[in-house]
Amino acid sequence: MEMSISLKLEAKQTSIRHNNRTLSEEEYQEPAHSHIIRERTKDNIIIRQEPIAEAYKRLFDNQVAEYNSRQKRKDRKIDNYYKHVQQSKTLNLQKEMIVAVGSKDDWDALSYDDKKKAGRAIEEYVRAFIEANKSHIYVYNAMVHLDEAGAPHAHVNFIPLAHGYRNGLGTQPSWSKALDQLGYKGKGKKPFISFRETEVKRIEEALKEIGVTRKVIGERNYIPSIKKYKEIMELKDRTKEELQKLQQDFSTKDNELEELKGKVEAKEIDLALLDGELAEKQELAHGAEESARQARQQAQEAQGEAERLQKEADRLKSQVIDSNRALSEKDQLINRQEAQLERNDQLFNEQTRQYDEETDFINRRAKALKEIERASRVIYTDQDVRPSKLNPDEVILKKEHYKNLKQRAGFSDIIGNFASTIVSKIQQTSIYKALEAEMNKWKNAYNNLKAKYNKLEKENENLRQELGKLRHQNDVGRDLGILCEKYLPQDERDSLYRRLSRLKKEEDKRLERDDFSYDYDR
User: Fold this and answer.
1) Which of 1, 179, 216, 390 could form a disulfide with 184 if both were Cys (CB 3.0 to 4.6 A apart)?
2) Of 302, 242, 303, nearest to 270 (Cα)?
3) d(CA 464, CA 473)
4) What is the rounded CA–CA span in Å between residue 437 and residue 266?
């Protein structure tokens, strides 16, 4: 039986929790782990499991202590070599090697027992790999996965060890120097290519024990990414299934004939493209570094896109904040106007009270003058008065009574003149005139305040209506922003934002042209 052999080296990315299946229930539900067949996880083969921090202590603690003892300056001493290497730009914290046998199509045609046999052969190879390279490669974690659809494979995480350093520790984690000291000489990717060829031959020997020989595709059988390979194969299978379903429904849906033809042709094209992409990936001779470069480029592009989306989200958030700020300012304006109205009401009430007091004062003075005038009037009686017998239109008065009556008449004239003089004098006094002017002023102020109050009440109602509209617009804008981010592609979102910005500028110009203001004293 012939099967391809894949040996891939991950540069930096690794997930020990994924490799060891120490995931939480929530993580198992994530798309990145949905391919795991959990009932088969118990069949995975554990070769070695050691926390990397403890591995660093085991490998380097003695050398760190010896190095620190030679240092006279405290800032040159190393407290934690694991963290020290994490921050280094020249050393390699760890590497991950992925070894796989066969393709998904191969294993779809074989039994699960055959897959277990291949898993044990991979385990045998990994143990031989550990022993053969232990002087320069320290494996701290190694697992064989049998609980995924497709090829059985192993994840081997290791720390490269290079010896003979003159500066710093004598042994340091450098992958390029470790390869050189293992005998894989050369520049660029040549040392790793030689290393890979050696290990592939070692895998071939382990597979011969179970009757499997290597199938060579092109010069090398390099799979740039296990995850990418699985995605391509799963997409290929889904495409085949969709194509078959479309072909089965073709005969029963005459009214959808043209649409189904288009879908079938599109799926056939996708399938051909995927097959071509898979073939190209398998025929790559020197794809390891190129794949790593592309992965880094894709990661940078993804990070750039994430930053762009974050900026866009921040911009939308800023617009929402500005809208809320405008609403808050209008609320504050309404509150200030309501407070001003309340102060105006208080002032109006105070002025009305003073006006009532002054009016009462003037009324009381007028009443007093009337009393004086009434008291000054002569009251006639019939005492000592009798009618004349000679002329019925005449009366006869006693002399004494006539004298008194004459005096009273004179007194009444004097009192009347005095009262008239007093009233005239009072009306001519500055106090009376000031009170009269003040009363007229407060009358005018009252009328003005009443007019302003009515105007402010109307403006206040308009502001409340506008505030309600703005709040509604803000809610609609926020919901629209969420829907845009969720459903619209980037070009349509940009077009929509530009249009909204243009409309906002036009509205601002309209308000400026209309001399719009919230100043109630205008």
Assistant:
1) 179
2) 242
3) 14
4) 95
- Tell me phi and psi for residue 331, to 5 degrees: -60, -45
CA-to-CA distance for 47 and 39, rounded, in angstroms? 20
Question: What DSSP character marks residue 254?
Answer: G
Distance CA 49, CA 17 (A): 11
Bridge partners of 2?
213
Strands (E) in 381-470, as ranges, are: 385-387, 395-397
Whole-number Å distance between alpha carbons of 520 and 522: 6
Write the pLDDT tens digit of every residue in 365-407: 677 666 656 555 545 566 667 777 777 778 777 777 777 666 6
The C-alpha torsion from 70 through 76 and 78 to 83, rounded to 10°, is: -150
**CA-to-CA separations, 140 to 234, 365, 384, in angstroms, rounded:** 32, 113, 148
If you search the block for the tokens 């019939």, which residue do you land on?
382
Q: What pairing do the DSSP bridges indicate for beta strands 45-49 and 137-145?
A: antiparallel
Report which of 88, 26, 16, 3 is spatially closest to residue 54, judged by C-alpha positions. Answer: 16
Question: How far is 278 from 287, CA to CA, in rounded Å?
Answer: 13
> How many separate helices (H) and strands (E) can be counted in the chain?
14, 9
Q: Look up residue 413 and give its two tokens.
A: 């004239």
Q: How many CB atoms lie within 10 A of CB 493?
A: 16
Chain segment 160-178, per-residue pLDDT in tens = 999 999 989 999 999 999 9
What is the distance between the alpha carbons of residues 234 and 226, in angstroms, rounded to a whole number? 12
Classify residue 21 as left (phi > 0), alpha (psi -120 to 50) or beta.
Answer: left
Q: How many C-beta atoms lie closer than 10 Å to residue 235's C-beta?
A: 13
Query: What letter would DSSP give residue 95?
Result: E
Give Cα separations from 225 to 167, 236, 289, 420, 447 (angstroms): 37, 16, 12, 120, 86
Q: Are 20 and 49 in contact (CB under 8 A)?
A: yes
282 within 8 A of 217, measured Cβ to Cβ:
yes
> Do 364 and 358 contact (CB within 8 A), yes or no?
no
- Count of all residues that appear for the chain in the document: 522
- Check residues 170 and 413 and name the one with the higher pLDDT: 170
Helix (H) / strand (E) containing 480 = helix 430-487
